[in-house]
Amino acid sequence: MQNIKNEINNTYGRLTVLSIDETKRGKSHIFWVCKCTCGSITSVNGSRLRNKSTSSCGCLRIEKLREAVQTHGKYKKRLYNIYNGIKNRCYNKNNPKYNLYGGNGITMCST
Question: What is the pTM of this model?
Answer without folding.
Answer: 0.59
